[in-house]
Design brief:
With 258 residues, this protein is mainly alpha-helical. It has nine helices and no strands. It is found in: Membrane.
């Protein structure tokens, strides 16, 4: 229970730190990037699909005794366009944050570095910006390789559970918790990577405090699923994940890892 309550506490602290003068610009830049990419992709996709529906249904008209249905047909065509905009908003809200993780990783690395220095007052390992960006990019590839085949295995389990009466109510919960673990790992790893702790050692440390990581990741997962909230939750989650790393999991506070 203590680990679960601390997960809520770290996320609350992150919201406060995100507004502090020292971190504000590091939060606003990736958030502006998210809004720009999200807005452009959403507008282009919805406009194209909505235009296609309008073009296909433009010639739909009934003659004779059924002409009274033309108003209903036009209403349904317009409703389909509106429905496309709404559905696409939901789809983008669900997958957008995961889609930009790889692109925004260097920005998140800078933010995690500033949080680490502000909290610990310890300098970061000396390296060039180019080396940091390349290291962060490779780390994201490594994390992708970690979760990809595991996600397929969990998906298989979820599909099996779905077809078992009574037990199938747990299928969605299994997938949600798995996604929460991945997000917890993702956001905590920025702090570990900046301190050049290997991915394998970081995983061992995370498993020592599973409930803290799982609760934190599940909270972020829930917020990520809320439209528009997902546009700014990423930098806040990076701050919270870095706080968890430096205060709970780093070698300075957890020196021995078996």
């Amino acid at each position: 229970m203590q680990q679960i309550s601390r997960a809520f506490s770290y996320l609350s602290q992150a919201f406060s730190l995100a507004r502090s003068p020292g971190l504000r610009w590091y939060v606003m830049v990736p958030m502006a990037f998210n809004v720009l990419v999200f807005g452009v992709l959403y507008w282009l996709s919805a406009t194209w699909i909505g235009g296609w529906i309008s073009a296909v249904t433009a010639g739909w008209a009934l003659d004779g005794g059924l002409s009274f249905l033309n108003g209903l047909i036009q209403f349904l065509a317009n409703a389909a366009v509106v429905l496309v905009w709404i559905l696409l908003l939901g789809v983008f809200a669900s997958v957008f944050t995961l889609g930009v993780q790889l692109i925004a990783a260097p920005f998140m690395g800078f933010l995690a570095e500033k949080v680490d220095i502000q909290v610990t007052s310890r300098p970061m390992p000396d390296e060039s910006i180019g080396a940091m960006i390349w290291r962060t990019f490779k780390r994201e590839i490594r994390k992708t390789l970690y979760w990809l085949w595991r996600a397929l295995l969990v998906l298989f389990v979820v599909v099996v559970l779905y077809f078992i009466p009574v037990v199938n109510v747990f299928a969605s919960a299994v997938w949600f918790l798995w996604s929460g673990w991945l997000l917890g790992m993702q956001y905590i790893d920025y702090g570990a990577d900046n301190r050049q702790v290997s991915f394998e050692e970081m995983l061992v440390r995370l498993k020592r405090k599973r409930w803290l990581v799982l609760t934190f990741g599940s909270l972020v997962m829930g917020l990520t699923m809320l439209p528009l909230v997902n546009l700014f939750i990423m930098p806040v989650a990076v701050i919270a994940g870095t706080l968890i790393w430096v205060k709970e999991l780093s070698p300075e506070v957890m020196p021995e890892v078996v």
